[in-house]
């Protein structure tokens, strides 16, 4: 009877892990589909990309009951980025680079949802910070035309990672970045001569660099900690049960020995 109770307890403890694995598996499959769609766009196979995106939608609906780890904000961001990707692959008037940008945006969103630890959008650090440095150099060289060009490039790159950033970064931090970027954009005609706008430029660069640095730090996957804690509980419970059985067995032996001596 006690052994049956022990087995039931162990099964109960294992159920959350099994459920989490099922959800993770569903997310991973969807993540793979988003990557395959992006690869098709890079190869100019837009029709195949759209088929994969449509299939993604079907699979997402089929597993929506299992994928319960998504928040309402994540659902909204994912839906919007997916719709933009579908429109890009279906619209012949959209150029190749814009198609890649929109499907990349969707790909990064899906990855940000499936992998909280060092998401793919952090790999955009090099191009974004390089363009930002060139933008600053143009300001201090008094090259207005070059600044305008580099700032537009920066905005395009930032737009690609923005939805996925909103999944992994706090709303307060996103708001601070938005405020700085909006300020520079609003006063861009005067940026070469206005010291205040230049200070905002420096502050924005520092905020972005700090964000990328923090996101690149190695951190333990929260799901791994859950597995460790759950598995550890099972091991401790099992060892406790084995120890209890051994203790009861020793007690019974001692009683039998006492009876034999009488």
TrEMBL record:
Keywords: Coiled coil, Membrane, Transmembrane, Transmembrane helix. It comes from the Bacteria. The keyword Transmembrane applies. The chain crosses the membrane at residues 224-244. Residues 194-221 form a coiled coil. This is Sporulation protein. The lineage of its organism: Bacteria, Bacillati, Bacillota, Bacilli, Bacillales.
């Amino acid at each position: 009877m006690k052994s049956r109770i022990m087995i039931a307890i162990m099964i109960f403890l294992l159920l959350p892990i099994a459920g989490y694995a099922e959800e993770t598996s569903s997310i991973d499959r969807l993540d793979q589909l988003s990557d395959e769609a992006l690869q098709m766009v890079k190869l100019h196979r837009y029709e195949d990309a759209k088929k994969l995106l449509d299939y993604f939608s079907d699979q997402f609906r089929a597993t929506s009951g299992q994928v319960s780890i998504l928040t309402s904000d994540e659902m909204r961001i994912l839906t919007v980025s997916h719709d933009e990707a579908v429109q890009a692959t279906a619209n012949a008037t959209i150029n190749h680079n814009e198609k890649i940008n929109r499907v990349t945006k969707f790909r990064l969103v899906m990855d940000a949802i499936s992998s909280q630890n060092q998401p793919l959008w952090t790999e955009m650090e090099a191009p974004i910070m390089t363009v930002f440095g060139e933008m600053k150099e143009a300001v201090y060289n008094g090259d207005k035309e070059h600044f305008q060009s580099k700032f537009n490039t920066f905005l395009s790159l930032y737009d690609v990672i923005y939805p996925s950033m909103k999944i992994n970064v706090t709303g307060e931090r996103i708001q601070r970045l938005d405020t700085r970027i909006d300020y520079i954009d609003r006063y861009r005609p005067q940026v070469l001569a206005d010291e205040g706008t230049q200070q905002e430029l420096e502050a924005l660069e520092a905020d972005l660099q700090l964000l990328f640095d923090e996101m690149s730090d190695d951190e333990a996957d929260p799901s791994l900690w859950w597995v460790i804690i759950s598995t550890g509980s099972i091991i401790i419970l099992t060892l406790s049960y084995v120890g209890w059985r051994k203790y009861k067995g020793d007690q019974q032996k001692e009683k039998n020995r006492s009876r034999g001596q009488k």
